[in-house]
Amino acid sequence: MSDQPPQAAPPPGDPDPAATPPGGPAAPEPGAATPPASGGPAVPGYPVVPGGAPAGPQQPQDWVFPPTGGYPVGSGPYGGQPWYPGAPVAYPGQPVHGWYPPGHGLDPADPLVTPPGAGVNGWFSRCVGAVRRGWRLLLPILLLTQVLPALVVSVVSLVLDPTAKWEQSMADDPAALPDTFVTDMGVMLSVVLGSALLFGLVQSLGWAAGTWVVTRQAAGQPVSMGAALSYGARRALGLWGWTLLMSVIITLGVCLCVIPGIYFAFALSMAGPVYLFERQHPIGRSFRMFHDRLGLLLGRVALVAAAVIVGSGAAGMVEGIGALPFGTTPMDSPGTAVGVIAVALVGAVLALPTHLAQLVGLVVTYAEQRAHEGPVDSARLAGELG
């Protein structure tokens, strides 16, 4: 039994001096011992709860950081942070990708792949960059594989053109068809279509070779004319076959009141690059890309189509006006024949920029579509070409 008198209870309303302050234990004086980690030994001056954790107010059970739903972009304790290559990237409807090693992420500075959100300016700047890097190789390739075949088909059409003979036959009876109309049309269509099909193989070689040059240059890999044509020769037959099938589909669509043909032309615009880079299901993949990002792909391909239509129209107009002085039968004499062939050559060369715009525009558009599906860069695309 103690001789000390019992300690008086605190008045009502006054805090118990032995109780822990509402804000937790007071901060230690400078040089005093620090509180122990959870599960460590007790330190004098710091009350300990069972389990070794310092006493004090605990976080509410429902408290989380950051609050449920996260911070809006640009807010929060650290504000907006810049985007770096290799950071997790989330796309609408796609899972968030993890951290990627260098060379396997989305690089905003990639010279070929337009990252999501860069818009038309990013796409156009990459098209211009591809032309600046590769025009010294692309122009000769397209001249050999696009311009010369088009010139040959044009000359064949001039040689077989039966309109002058029909005009003489219809002079007596303008309402009647010429006697040789069916035969002449059959021969002309057979030869012209046969030439177009044959030279279509050469043109496919050029598209494959040009795609190889654009992609490898963007990845910083060496290119040469011989290597490009060699690659084009390996891929020409397959690309030609798919191109023929696409031509049939588009032609059938045009026969069904034109609009379906225009739809098929846009929906199949990525089939050539899909075959070259992925080599499987080019038609189905192209349709899927078109419908997954309808506005984006439609806008890009419309710009390419506008450039091709304007350039081809201007070249055709120059060729048509230039051929007028040589009459309706220019192939009947050597002088007029040379003149009209020279005009056709000029028209074919003037169409060369349209071939370049079509090649570069479609390759850059395909790369942008791939970026919306997941992380990709120029090096990966160059590797996929094989």
Can you give keywords for this protein?
386 residues, mainly alpha, 11 helices, 58% helix, 0% strand, disordered N terminus
Provide a descriptive summary of the structure in words.
The chain has 386 residues and is mainly α. It is built from eleven helices and no strands. The protein starts with 118 loop residues before the first helix and ends with a helix. Residues 1-5, 17-24 and 30-104 have low confidence and may be disordered.
Q: H/E element string?
A: HHHHHHHHHHH
Counting DSSP E segments of at least 2 residues, the number of strands comes to 0
Uncertain runs: 1-5, 17-24, 30-104
Distance between the termini: 96 Å
Strand content: under 5%
Tell the overall outline: elongated
Mean pLDDT comes to 79
**Tally of helical runs:** 11
**Major sheet size, sense and barrel closure:** none
How helical, in percent, are the residues? 55-70%
- The assigned structural class equals mainly alpha
List the helices and strands and how they pair.
Layout: H1 119-160, H2 163-169, H3 181-218, H4 225-255, H5 259-267, H6 271-278, H7 282-292, H8 294-323, H9 334-350, H10 352-373, H11 378-385
Helix pairs in contact: 1-3, 1-9, 1-10, 3-4, 3-11, 4-5, 4-6, 6-7, 7-8, 8-9, 8-10
Quick recap:
By secondary structure, the protein is mainly α. 58% of the residues lie in helices and 0% in strands. It has helices spanning 119-160, 163-169, 181-218, 225-255, 259-267, 271-278, 282-292, 294-323, 334-350, 352-373, 378-385.
